[in-house]
Amino acid sequence: MRRGYTALMVLRLVASALVALLPLTAAAQDAPGQDPSALELRRAGESSPRRAIVHPAPPLDEAVREAERATAEYESAQRAAELLREQSSAAERRPDLSYDVTSGIQQRNLQRLR
Fold first, then answer.
1. Choosing a second label site near 33 at 20 to 30 A (CA), which of 18, 52, 77, 109?
2. Integer Cα distance of 40 and 114 in angstroms
3. Is 33 in contact with 27 (CB distance < 8 Å)?
4. Helix-then-strand count for the chain, H and E
């Protein structure tokens, strides 16, 4: 049992030593005065040039139909909104509260007070 305990302690000691030395070895691998991002850029430039992806152009008549459909939908929505505005504004105006009626009522009340 004692033997397993010492083996475990030795394993922990070796693991902690490796973890402590890891940053030192990584720093030693970088050449002094060179930027790691420059190395990555150079590696990417050395690979074969990437080909541009060219998608085929959509048919012109299909694009025109789509634009006309979108315009028609927008115009119908605008007409519907205008109709709603007209209906709501007409409902808000009450004939019994017009200027002539209210001023007549006020005038009559003033005459009664005299």
1. 18
2. 99
3. no
4. 4, 0
- Going 89 to 94 to 99 to 102, the CA torsion angle's sign is negative
- For 95, residues 6+ apart whose C-beta sits below 8 A from its C-beta are 101
The 8-class DSSP code of residue 32 comes to T
Q: Which residues contact 94 (CB under 8 A, 6 or more apart)?
A: none
Q: In sequence order, what are the residues at sequence separation of 6 or more whose Cβ sits closer than 8 angstroms to the Cβ of residue 101?
A: 95
Please state the pTM of the whole predicted model. Answer: 0.31
SS3 label, residue 35: coil
Which residue type does 14 have?
Answer: V
pLDDT tens across 11-42, in order? 888 888 777 776 665 555 555 555 555 555 55
Token pair 């115009």 is found at: 75
Place of tokens 């050395």: 46
Are the C-beta atoms of residues 53 and 47 closer than 8 Å to each other?
Answer: no
